[in-house]
Amino acid sequence: MPKTCFILNPTAGPSQRHDMPALIAQHFGTREPNYEIRLTEHAGHAVALAKMAAAEGFQVVAAIGGDGTVNEVGRGLLGTAAALGIVPQGSGNGLARHLKVPLKLPAALQRLATPDFSRMDVGVINGHPFFCTAGLGFDAHVSQHFAQAGSRGLSTYLRVTLREYRNYRAVPIRADLDGHVEETDCYVLAFANASQYGNNAYIAPLADLRDGLLDVCLIDALPVGRALKVSLGMVLGNLPQSKAAEYFRVPRARVTAQDPIGFHVDGDYLGHTTEFEIDLMPLALHVAV
Ligand SMILES: Nc1ncnc2c1ncn2[C@@H]1O[C@H](COP(=O)(O)OP(=O)(O)OP(=O)(O)O)[C@@H](O)[C@H]1O
């Protein structure tokens, strides 16, 4: 059993109903425990907690939360020997689902007690690492408004998406996708390291965490008919075959937008800007799943 530090985001997910310390003790033992549990006190705190845990010699630092918590813990672990573990407790759990981490609690902890160690690629957009997906356009716009919605969960997410669909307009961009140039309108330009946004919404079903490449999904416009095709394609995992989106596979990209455009990192809205540099760090993160 690897020496494990659990980093728990008490605000993640629709609700917290579990006695996490008791459950962890059941799986990791109470006699001479080989683990610690540390709680985040504010957004961003998990980065420092993870860095500290790695410096203290924990072999696994496990994020208990959703993709935002996973992103913070992962960032703290970059350049260290410690591996990222995940106990999925978020709303979407995109990276956990991609890595086939059990979503039910006892099973997730049981798996983490004897994990397999490997490495995964890490994406970077304008200096911000991402592990699952980053994107420009409507997905970022929804993240921005979801964060202000006052409640979380899938139903709030769908409500915000439908409401904002009526307001959102595409922005013209120039995208240099590792030498291939697209001058186009951008409704969504997603950079996928993992296959899905979370909740099994597959934006890039063929994305591979270990191929040294990002799957790029471009949607230039989203009239109603196409929106239905895209939604269905994401749910069924066959968006590339539906021809409702264009796909590219690149290790880096550079995007210039005519007007400031919103971007997100692993589902968290980070702001609006006109210049984007996207890169990939191959196999830069150890994972324990
Ligand atoms: N103690 C805290 N108080 C307030 N916010 C916190 C705290 N700890 C972490 N956060 C923030 O909570 C946000 C949401 O967490 P997280 O993304 O893990 O859950 P989620 O949004 O429910 O799941 P998912 O991203 O999978 O949909 C993160 O962006 C993180 O920065």
Produce the secondary structure layout.
Layout: E1 4-8, H1 20-28, E2 35-39, H2 45-55, E3 60-65, H3 67-77, E4 83-88, H4 94-98, H5 105-113, E5 117-125, E6 128-130, E7 133-137, H6 138-147, H7 154-165, E8 171-177, E9 180-186, E10 188-192, E11 214-219, H8 224-236, H9 239-242, E12 246-250, E13 253-265, E14 268-288
Parallel strand pairs: 1-2, 1-3, 3-4
Antiparallel strand pairs: 5-6, 5-14, 7-10, 7-13, 8-9, 8-13, 10-11, 11-12, 13-14
Adenosine-5'-triphosphate binds next to helix 3.
Cofactor: Mg(2+)
GO molecular function, one term: ATP binding
Organism: Hymenobacter lapidarius
Structure overview:
Keywords: ATP-binding, Kinase, Lipid biosynthesis, Lipid metabolism, Magnesium, Metal-binding, Nucleotide-binding, Phospholipid biosynthesis, Phospholipid metabolism, Transferase. This is DAGKc domain-containing protein. GO terms for molecular function: ATP binding; kinase activity; metal ion binding. The chain has 289 residues and is of the alpha+beta class. It folds into two domains: 4-115, Rossmann fold (3-Layer(aba) Sandwich); 128-282, Tumour Suppressor Smad4, CATH 2.60.200.40. The protein has helices spanning 20-28, 45-55, 67-77, 94-98, 105-113, 138-147, 154-165, 224-236, 239-242; strands spanning 4-8, 35-39, 60-65, 83-88, 117-125, 128-130, 133-137, 171-177, 180-186, 188-192, 214-219, 246-250, 253-265, 268-288. Strands 5, 6, 7, 8, 9, 10, 11, 12, 13 and 14 form a ten-stranded antiparallel β-sheet that branches. A four-stranded parallel β-sheet has the order 2-1-3-4, with helices on both faces. Helix 1 (20-28) packs parallel to helix 5, helix 2 crosses helix 3 and helix 6 packs across helix 7. It is globular. The structure holds adenosine-5'-triphosphate (ATP). The site of adenosine-5'-triphosphate has 25 residues, from helix 3. Adenosine-5'-triphosphate binds next to helix 3.
